[in-house]
Amino acid sequence: MPNMTHPHKKGRTISDLPTEVLDIILTKLPFVDTIRSSAVCSSWNSATTQAPLCPQTPWLMLPSDQEDDFTTRRFFNLAENKVYKMKNVFEGLGNDVWCVGSSHGWLVILDDEANPHLFNPFSRVQIQLPLFTNELANVNNLRKSFITKAILLADPSRSNDFVVVMIYDYDFASRLAFYKQGDKTWTKLVGANQDYCDIICHDNQLYALADNRSVEVWEFQSSPTKIMSIEPSILPKDVDKFPRNNNISTKFYLVKTSNDDVLFIERFIGNFVNAQGLVVDESYLLSSDDTQPLVCPYRTKMFFVFKLDFKQKRWEKMESLKDQSVFLG
Fold this sequence. Notes:
By secondary structure, this protein is mainly beta. The chain has helices spanning 19-26, 31-37, 42-50, 139-146, and strands spanning 59-62, 73-77, 82-86, 98-103, 106-110, 116-119, 126-128, 147-152, 163-170, 173-180, 187-188, 196-202, 205-210, 215-219, 225-230, 248-256, 262-270, 299-309, 314-318. The protein has four domains: 16-54, Monooxygenase (Up-down Bundle); 59-89, no CATH class; 96-232, Lipocalin (Beta Barrel); 235-324, no CATH class.
């Protein structure tokens, strides 16, 4: 009887997974697992750069430990309750890299000479931006105080038409400037207010919060165009408990949530708080019997949170964040 053999059938591997199925999987993975998936094979690596990412819990960039060198950074992943240490992150950018913002997994940083860069700490890709020149600011001022915040309106890994927007201080006012991919210089945003405190990206549009609590929405597809203005909210009566004076200060934030809501948050800070948690006057720190002033650190006393009603173009007061949380600096 002849020996019957079956021809060898080549088994299918994980790299043969249909693209449609892989895309569905990638949209449900946390960021760390997406990074790991990109190392499986070339087809998975390509898919991870194209598939839309699911909403991610923000990572916090922490100061380095004393034993770390100046190129090492630590990142805290709240979802895993884990700290990742990355070595040689800013290698070649100087000894004192200064971060002025982050968006879409990219950092906006300034090197030792105040040259701005976009930097992805995971892929290590760098994109140098034009120097924002200002005759009134020296290098140290440019690095540490001139630029208040910078954001990206699109992910440079997925778009060749990204925009960077920043808040910068000039002549005792906080103004806006932007850089579009391919430009040679930064451009000041003409026609806007002259005092801004926060900016975010929502639906590829710029939301800019002014000190008077008004919000402007800007479109950048062609030339910058203001497409919507939202007037300041009527504050609750509880605000009267915290009068504006030297003992109480406020800070405003715009926040985009994982549910695609836009929030306006007002934070009330007691500049000097005693051991009982009461806001005190600065004169409380030193009496005639004291040789050393008391240490009374500041403390956040209250938040007011409003959600934007896009149809009505007005803010609605929220009583609870429910199952969401926000990071505020």
